[in-house]
Amino acid sequence: MAEPTVSSTGRDPELSTRSLTVRFFAAAKAAAGTGEVRIPVAPDATVDDLLGVLAERYGTELGGVVAHSSFLLDGIGVERENRIGAAAGLDILPPFAGG
User: Fold this and answer.
1) 67/69 Cα distance (integer angstroms)
2) Does any domain span residue 86?
């Protein structure tokens, strides 16, 4: 069975679907059980749309981590409401302790 495509509208996302590489770091990597995954997305999808799909796939532990994480879309800091557009990758960066 094909994986559902992440989209934020009622339009048929299969018309312009492509894959986005999601990279998990630190606690997000531990919660997902992997460092990287490819997810089919439509250009109209938002970061928040994608995060919802990831939380469904990987469970509440990842959902809790991403609730406090920062996000880089092709290396540029973005908010949850930003559209994915033509981006190739999303990095999920949980808060890091330092000192």
Assistant:
1) 6
2) no
